[in-house]
Write a structure and sequence with these properties.
Distance between the termini: 55 Å
Oligomer: single chain
Strand order of the largest sheet: 1-2
Largest sheet: 2 strands, antiparallel
């Protein structure tokens, strides 16, 4: 069942990421996805091995199948989140958007736990929910904004 859920998720997430209208340019998408992957890899390594909080598939093992999550789901989800984000809307709309993604992500994590894609030891779904809201804003949305500021400034040397 884990493989059916994982492969279906990869297909759906990537189809949506490819087919949606891109509201931000290619370089903003690319750099934000690469940045998010780097942060995710570091956080997940410490969460898995140092703190035994969460991980993919088997505890205390590094598996190639986890790469399917990192490369098949994470980049597509990041592209969707940053392109649909209501950059010019009211703060409440932005907060509701992030909360909606956190609810979706927590529900998807629950499913991943049930079918064996993920495991939790010193972690729970409430922690995940809070972490999703914060990390989507800090590592995705603020990265896009920082990238825009950096690339719009004149080169001073």
């Amino acid at each position: 069942m884990a493989w059916i859920v994982l492969i279906s998720s990869i297909a759906i997430f990537n189809a949506v990421a490819v087919l949606i209208r891109k509201r931000i340019n290619f370089s903003e998408n690319y750099t934000t996805v690469v940045f998010a992957l780097a942060v995710s890899a570091v956080v997940d390594v410490f969460a898995s091995y140092r703190y035994k909080a969460w991980g993919f598939f088997e505890v205390d093992k590094t598996e190639y199948s986890a790469l399917l999550v990192y490369l098949g789901i994470y980049p597509a989800a990041a592209v969707i989140i940053i392109n649909w984000y209501p950059y010019r809307s009211a703060r409440l709309t932005k907060l509701l958007y992030l909360l909606g993604w956190a609810v979706f992500s927590t529900a998807y994590e629950w499913l991943s736990l049930k079918v064996g894609i993920m495991w939790h030891i010193h972690w729970n779904l409430l922690y995940s929910f809070v972490l999703y809201v914060a990390s989507y804003y800090v590592f995705l949305i603020l990265h896009v904004k920082a990238y825009r500021r950096l690339t719009n400034k004149p080169n001073t040397g």
